[in-house]
Amino acid sequence: MECKTFEIKLISATNLSDVREKFKMKVYAEVTIAGNAKTRKRTLIDKAGETNPTWNVTMQYMIGELAVQNEGIEEVITLYCKRKLGDRFIGEVRTPIKQLYEQHANANGGSANILTRQVQSSIGISQGELKFSFGFGETVTIERPSRRKKMLTAGAVLLLNLTISTVLGQVIEIPLFMDAGRGVDFMIEQMIEKALPVPEFVC
């Protein structure tokens, strides 16, 4: 599979809406690719800047060629205010990775790779600005695990779950199927699809 390194540095945010009236804002940022939970990464919490937090945190992903060819695959940066009773959503920045890649190629890795974007609420209202930089590495070929290897891995997980359930008496969630006659191979295939999904846009 053709892949490349995608690096993003979350620098800071300015003039964020104060979503916490009585206490200090403590803001962190979360990054995903296309909103996929398996790609979720986050910064530390800024406890000093309040509505003007600073992080200077760099994150790296290995992304597939699909991510730089498809306009619909976005880098999603979401800002939250940390609270004891549940973190509060501030806003987000969505940018197609294809757009970032084209800008990177045109800039030859120069200062144009630093962006300032509006942080948008869920209804499209500006909640401040986010500053971040990004870059892309060279294309490399990564071999994905074969289907046989995935089946062996899933089978090992199934065996471990059954062992724990038997020895410790704990209830482990194991997929149930309408057609039990299709056997263990079918069960393992279902576990691969359900428990071990791999998005095509990441490596």
TrEMBL record:
Keywords: Membrane, Transmembrane, Transmembrane helix. The chain crosses the membrane at residues 151-172. Residues 1-111 form the C2 domain. InterPro entries: C2_dom, C2_domain_sf, C2_SRC2/BAP. Pfam families: C2 (PF00168). This is C2 domain-containing protein. The lineage of its organism: Eukaryota, Viridiplantae, Streptophyta, Embryophyta, Tracheophyta.
